[in-house]
Amino acid sequence: MMVETGKSQQGTAIVTGASSGIGAVYANRLANRGFDLILVARRLDRLEAAADRIRGMSGRRVDIVAADLANEDGIRRVEEIVRDTPDLGLIANVAGAGALGTASLVDPTAVEAMLKVNILALTRLSLAAARRFTSIKSGTIINIGSIVALMAAPGAGAYCGSKSYVLYFSRALQAEVGSHGVTVQVVMPGPVHSEFFGERPPPFPPE
User: Fold this and answer.
1) Which runs of consecutive H residues, i.e. helices, occur in the chain?
2) Is the pLDDT of residue 198 over 80?
3) Is 134 in contact with 182 (CB distance < 8 Å)?
4) Domains in the chain, start-ordered, CATH in brackets?
5) Of 16, 61, 98, 147, which is most buried by a Cβ count within 10 Å?
6) DSSP secondary structure of 154-191
7) Residues 6 or more apart from 162 whose CB is under 8 A from it?
8) Residues 128, 69, 153, 198: is their CA dihedral positive or negative?
9) 40-78 per-position pLDDT tens digit
């Protein structure tokens, strides 16, 4: 069910990885701040449940897009949405993947899929948003990194490296577009109780 609302004064925000964890929190808070939403995640059932909850809570317009950002088709679909959403004001690149394990045991296919989500998708969506936002001299790009960007954790080398990329790519992009009215924010959380870790220990040494 779609709740009819007036035009959002904040515009529309895209949130990837929006069906659970940090992405779901961002979606809730952005709706409470007056944004209409486009929620992106792989699992349609989870997206539908999240959208219904947010509509009921906030009265905002919430659209959903089921897309796998480890696949070219999924990335391209969301790029098109970034380009074609008239009142887009913010994108939160929250979708992330992990492939933990020592070099001798980790699945290379899982590493490749992780890098596509954590690096390739985030980069392409950030660049699409940056082009859009610089043309209108306004907009915000939020990229979710991790505290492990500053670590070299055994058993999580590729994951740490992907988050280091997010940190420095985001800083460089901010240096490029900041003078054009665009804000690029990189968020570096520590371990969060979510499905991402599940029963796995976080990839940092114990205190």
Assistant:
1) 21-32, 44-58, 72-84, 108-115, 122-136, 157-177
2) no
3) yes
4) 12-184 (3.40.50.720)
5) 16
6) TT-HHHHHHHHHHHHHHHHHHHHHGGGTEEEEEE----
7) 114, 115, 118, 119
8) positive
9) 999 999 999 999 999 999 999 999 999 999 999 999 999
